[in-house]
Amino acid sequence: MIAPLLLVAALLAAAPSQARTGDEQEAPWVGIVERLESCLAEARPLLVAGPSCIGVHSTPCLRHAENQTTTGMERCYLDEYRAWDVMLNAYFRDRPRGERGEALQQVQRAWITYRDRKCAYFQVHYAGGSMARWLGAQCMADTTARRAIELRFFRAERR
């Protein structure tokens, strides 16, 4: 079985890099973060309506003809995953101090292990075939999104 962290690294490395010109300075997921944040700002109540924001990028991305390939589907999901991961990390950095913060840090470490193992299973189930690539990427996007929504909820509850 491929180690979970190796799967994550493989998914990120396998995604085609997009050439950048001097006019394009930001990563492709920056605009996705803005769209996701806007969607979450409207989601009420957050834990119930927030998951409807999952796929804000990947769903329309997958409709393009050029993304009807393993590589295209993987790219759509990985771009959304990266955006959710940026948000998740920002929410986590804003965690409370003290006992609650330490408890959240322990939960987060366990969650990362869970997510990585869960999404690595697609490599085992599909014996490393091409479906494993885009399904693993979709798993990373969906699972990370759901956790980011939870962390955003915890942050909002403190304010």
Q: Which regions are unreliable across 5 or more consecutive residues at pLDDT < 50?
A: 1-24
Total number of distinct structural domains:
1
Query: What is the CA-CA span between the terminal residues?
Result: 43 Å
Note the overall shape: globular
Strand content: under 5%
Coarse structural class: mainly alpha
Give the integer mean of the pLDDT values: 87
The radius of gyration is 16 Å
Number of strands: 0
Listing every helix as H and every strand as E from the N terminus to the C terminus, the arrangement reads HHHHHHH
- Number of helix segments? 7
As a percent range, the share of helical residues equals over 70%
Question: What does the main sheet amount to?
Answer: none
How would you describe this structure to a colleague?
The chain is an all-alpha fold. It has one domain (4-12, 28-158). 72% of the residues lie in helices and 0% in strands. The protein has seven helices and no strands. It has helices at residues 4-14, 29-42, 46-49, 58-62, 70-93, 98-125, 130-158. Helix 2 packs across helix 5 (70-93), helix 5 packs parallel to helix 7 (130-158) and helix 6 (98-125) packs antiparallel against helix 7 (130-158). The longest helix has 29 residues, at 130-158. The protein is globular and about 45 Å long. Residues 1-24 have low confidence and may be disordered.
